[in-house]
Amino acid sequence: MKRLSFYFCMVLLMVLFVVPQLLEAARVGETAPDFVALGSDGKTYRLADLKGKFVVLEWHNQGCPYTRKHYEGGNMQGLQKEWTGRGVAWFTVISSAPGTQGYVTASEENAYLGRMHAVPTAVLLDPSGQLGHVYNAKTTPHMFIINPQGALIYDGAIDNRPTSDVSDINGATNYVSLALEQAMSGKPVATAATRPYGCSVKYAN
Amino acid sequence: MPANSLAKQNLGTHFAFPRGSVAASPGVRIHDMGTGLKKRTTTTRIRHFVGPIFQLGILLFSCTLLLASAVAIPHGTAELLTERTSIQPGHHFYIGLNFRLEPGWHIYWINPGDAGESPRVTWQLPAGVHAGTIEWPMPKRLPAFTLMDFGYEDQVLLLVPMKASPKLDAGSSLSLSAGIKLAVCRDVCVTGRAQASLSLPVRKETPPPDEAASGLFRAARRALPQPMPPSWKFKVVSRKDSFQLAGSVGHSVQQAFFFPLLANQIENAAPQTLRPVKSGFELTLKKSDQFLKPIDRLQGALLLGEKAYSLNIPVH
User: Fold this and answer.
1) How far is B291 from chain A (nearest CA, A)?
2) Using CB atoms, which residue from B145, B190, B191 is nearest to A203?
3) For residue range B97-155, what is the model confidence (pLDDT) as tens digits?
4) B191 and which of A65, B5, B264, B290 could share a cystine (Cβ 3.0–4.6 Å)?
């Protein structure tokens, strides 16, 4: 009996941990992988609970010059305000491992949100990098959009100017806004995948 | 980014050092010692006399720094080097952008890979001199966590072909200046900008090589991907999740790695599976997750053993 429950546990562990790892990373046009993650507000967020809404995932590292480009000029906060105002669930995701650039505790992150006047729906803390690996998040920022049916409809850069200059924001084509506008008006997303730009996500080695 | 603000930024670093030395110089120390009103008047007189001399000194010192042209970038220096000691009207010549980096830091190739940013150069050139596009020596693979970047550590010389108009005046001196924006990264990235300049005389005669820099130019040229020998045959086939690159090069290949020129072609960090065959190799390249539209051509640099070759072939 003991032996049987051991095997049962092993199979369960395999299903829980190994199988998701074997699955292909998130791909545009396919169902976005489900996730459960803890927010800096202490709440738990699950993608499956957000069916019916557009969901934006924004990979973040407050020390990265490319992230700072979009926060110091207020660009990201403006996008968060606009799109959450239009019913989008906007999640800032932090996959920096402890000891690496951008790693923050929940209270540090909440203080940062206040200081920067950032208004995402929530900040998901992913110090293990699990969520980052499932989505194959490469850079900060790296943006993903999931439609109300749960399909990934955008994967890539925030805009078409891969620099750290704040002055490059004005006049750039914002791929996230463009994709959301198109999807919300029932059109296909014209630019659904681009090369994300920025600092590497600081995963645990 | 206008050119003059780049120059301002750069001049800021030039002036920083001479100003520091003025603060520690005897002339100012006299001023510091002054306590009474009378003494202060004396020091003011001395300062009136000494001030212009120091200012002139600062100016001269700055000028020599501008000619020397090595400027600070985050965790390193950038410098314009010339392959030959003068410019010949009507001829091509090469300028090199030489980067030196502190141990552990890197800058990026034309395709930086998964993260980072290639250096960008904006030239300020006199009339009659035109810059071509940068020729990039082969980068190193720079794995970062689960990602793969392509770039340079320690030192790299990026080659820039230049063209001189036949109308240039022999006997004149020309100033070439490059505004550089770049990201310098280790585990973290620091972005920066610099302005590097170089003055070169225009002479009628064939210019001799610049001995100090010729070694760096030779090394950079050796590290450029070479054209394929005409007898070599390549073919690339698009599969569901991969590209199959097959090469016939006349001998069995035991080591190969493909550096993509463009983003969104292959998954940079995915292992590239090599299968040596009798007269060449087959290499499996995993398609990028961001790969949506079929591509017409596979472009990049192919490293076979120690040698690198340019690859640009149609995809079947």
Assistant:
1) 7
2) B145
3) 999 999 999 999 999 999 999 999 999 999 999 999 999 999 999 998 789 999 999 99
4) A65
Q: Give the pair of three-digit tokens for residue B82.
A: 């010339």
Residue A154's H or E segment, with its range, is strand A152-156
Contacting residues of A for B144, CB less than 8 Å apart: 200
Which of B146, B263, B292 shows the shortest C-beta gap to A192?
B292
**Interfacial residues of A (vs B; Cβ cutoff 8 Å):** 25-28, 63-66, 100-101, 133, 136, 138-139, 155-156, 162-165, 167, 192-205
Residue A170, both tokens: 């004005």
Angstrom distance (rounded) from CA A71 to CA A64: 11
Share of chain A above pLDDT 70, in %: 88
User: Are B289 and A101 a contacting pair at CB < 8 A?
Assistant: no
Kindly report, residue by residue over A150-204, the tens digit of the pLDDT.
999 999 999 999 999 999 999 999 999 999 999 999 999 999 999 999 999 999 8
Reduce the secondary structure of chain B to three states and give it as a string.
Answer: CCHHHHHHHHHHHHHHHHHHHHHCCHHHHHHHHCCCHHHHHHHHHHHHHHHHHHHHHHHHHHHHHHHHCCEEECCEEEEEEECECCECCCCEEEEEEEEEECCCCEEEEEEEECCECCCEEEEECCCCEEECCCECCCCEEEEECCEEEEEEECEEEEEEEEEECCCCCCCCEEEEEEEEEEEEECCCEEEEEEEEEEEEEECCCCCCECHHHHHHHHHHHHCCCECCCCCCEEEEEECCCEEEEEEECCCCCCCEEEEECCCCCECCCCCCEEEEECCEEEEEEEECCCCCCCCCEEEEEEEECCEEEEEEEEEC
CB atoms within 10 A of CB B145: 22
The CA-to-CA distance between both ends of chain B, in Å, stands at 42
Alpha-carbon distance A53 to A51, whole Å? 6
Is B115 in contact with A202 (Cβ distance < 8 A)? no
**Count of residues in chain A:** 205
Query: pLDDT digit string (tens) for B41-75?
Result: 444 444 454 555 555 444 444 444 334 478 999 99
pLDDT tens profile B171-208: 999 999 999 999 999 989 999 999 999 999 999 999 99
Neighbours of A163 (CB within 10 A): 20
Task: Provide the whole-model pTM.
Answer: 0.80
CA dihedral (B122, B125, B128, B130) positive or negative: negative
